[in-house]
Amino acid sequence: MSKCEQCIIREFSSLKSLSKEELLSISGCKTSKFIKKGETIFEEGDTLNGVYCVKDGICKLSKLSANGKDQIVKLVVKGDLLGQRSLISDEAVNLSAVALNNMEVCFIPKAEIFGNLKNNSDFSMDMLKQMAHDLKESDNVVVNMAQKSVKQRLAEALIYIHNSFGLNNQGFLNVVLSREDYASVVGTATESAIRVLSQFKKENLISTSGKQIKIEDLEGLKRVE
Amino acid sequence: MSKCEQCIIREFSSLKSLSKEELLSISGCKTSKFIKKGETIFEEGDTLNGVYCVKDGICKLSKLSANGKDQIVKLVVKGDLLGQRSLISDEAVNLSAVALNNMEVCFIPKAEIFGNLKNNSDFSMDMLKQMAHDLKESDNVVVNMAQKSVKQRLAEALIYIHNSFGLNNQGFLNVVLSREDYASVVGTATESAIRVLSQFKKENLISTSGKQIKIEDLEGLKRVE
DNA sequence: ACTAAAACATGACAAATATCATATCAAAAT
DNA sequence: ATTTTGATATGATATTTGTCATGTTTTAGT
């Protein structure tokens, strides 16, 4: 758990193009930080002097809208970096990051990132690719938000979570969100999210056990209109 | 108009970090291409083997949603590049680009871009910064789409166009969009966009002359709820 | 200038979604 | 174990937005 070069995360993350020597030089990475469920890693407007690499756990990236409601923009998992966008733009962070379960992250100082961006073109390229991928995703979300119904968006959110984060040993979705969080992913009122989930239950598309959700009919969910 | 090194656009674009020699090597850039209003530069799903640098004119980047409606994701102007995201991700283009007025663009082949990404870290950094900026914008649009009313979104679209693209000599917005395009920016039905614009007119927030729109009360538009 | 086509406009109504109220349930605290 | 709090659930209703119909105006083509 101690050295970056040994970290299993390395091969999945944008850091994969860093050499052993480069990783060793990332001194701040030697110690990982544990973050409890519900804790805030950083908040909209904060200034970061480095990025976080997620070793374990899941967090949400969200933004507070003028109407006082939070909008979840992205879910971040093992292997992802947090705060790169802000670091590269050299501006305050645009989104808040809050842990959805217990997390382990390690901090990589700004200077290390910029040094590698300057000297390792493979690393720059990986960063660019990651950013390009995020941009495509974000554009697609814009289209979905603008053009699809709440029901469709919620169905797609469930499918997305199913495909990206998998299931636990009992077949429930690995990512457990409150109804309020689902509303905040989909961009609707909490009551609406609850109603739609109830409807999905009635139609046997999903089943629930407390906060846990199991997808019973993936194909059915895909057909939701 | 012929050589990249002389092009005024150069200093505004992501290409500003390329040296004179690097620009000279961009052979394909020697000839610029003229695109008429309404013409398509590329379509969703196309494979690009280079990027376009916009020398003049404005175009829309849009995506077709499953419901058959187009969603405009971004407006692109002088100095911007088109197709970088797709090129970097090495995948088909995610958005269609259609000229909103007569345009002049020049084409830069893929190999040139990648060569420079590999060898010129300032260029890579500029690309990264541009992408980071686009990502922030896109995330913000997601939040607006999800949390704001059609009226608010349309008011903000007008303000955005006012601030980003300016006015012509008679004080009308420089970018002229059809009502359908406004609907497509805001993510609503054409009739709804028309209705809201009519309402803005009645409230003396804007005035119109044919397709042209003049903002009469910018502060009032900002206060729209 | 005339015609056809497209864009704009508006009413009437339907559907989707938000809001408010209230009830139930589950988790946490004492 | 009991209380308290927060999350989930659902009904009733208001508001927003979409759809369809239809008329008018503008634009483009001959």
Structural description of this entry:
Two copies of one chain form a homodimer. Chain A has eight helices and ten strands. The model of chain A has no long low-confidence stretch (mean pLDDT 91). In chain A, 43% of the residues are buried. In chain A, a hairpin with a 5-residue loop joins strand 4 and strand 5. In chain A, the strands form three sheets. The first copy, chain A, has a four-stranded antiparallel beta sheet with strand order 1-8-3-6. A four-stranded antiparallel beta sheet of chain A has the order 2-7-4-5. Chain A has a two-stranded antiparallel sheet with strand order 9-10. Chain A has helices spanning 20-25, 84-89, 110-119, 121-147, 150-165, 179-186, 190-202, 218-222, and strands at 32-35, 40-42, 50-56, 59-64, 70-76, 81-82, 96-99, 103-109, 206-209, 212-215. Chain A has 225 residues and is an alpha+beta fold. In chain A, helix 5 (150-165) packs across helix 6 and helix 6 (179-186) crosses helix 7 (190-202). The first copy, chain A, is elongated. Chain A binds a DNA duplex (30 and 30 nucleotides) through residues 149-151, 178-180, 188-192, 194-195, 197-198, 210-211.
